[in-house]
């Protein structure tokens, strides 16, 4: 998968940050470059899970990821993931007319899945958060 640029927004100041995501298949992770200032690795079983984990970690630090893969109503099937290399997701309720959109295209902030502060981590989220914990501007 090529390097993808997505936007994150600070929930308090509304400042925007460009993130470069590079999927590393053999390690099942995204290498994330945060505006050229720092780098991290976000783990997951596939790009969809990695973006969900990244969105979760960013929200812990007051930021939110603005792409279709982070939307509340985004979902992926095995077939969709295989056919489009994880670059497409369904948006909306499951059904025969459910739209398929580009995973990394911009999504409005009000459509993004928001996590509460008491969400329990899974192993990948714990390891991902440890990698981002020393980022001073997040």
How are the secondary structure elements laid out?
Layout: E1 4-10, E2 16-24, E3 29-34, E4 38-43, H1 47-60, E5 63-65, E6 74-75, H2 78-83, E7 88-91, E8 100-102, H3 123-132
Antiparallel strand pairs: 1-2, 1-5, 2-3, 3-4, 6-7, 7-8
Helix pairs in contact: 1-3
Work out the helicity level: 10-25%
**Order of adjacent strands in the largest pleated sheet:** 4-3-2-1-5
Summarize the biggest pleated sheet.
Answer: 5 strands, antiparallel
Shape: globular
Strands, count: 8
Percent strand: 25-35%
List the secondary-structure elements in sequence, H or E.
EEEEHEEHEEH
Number of helices: 3
Uncertain spans: 118-138
In short:
22% of the residues lie in helices and 29% in strands. It is of the alpha+beta class and 138 residues long.
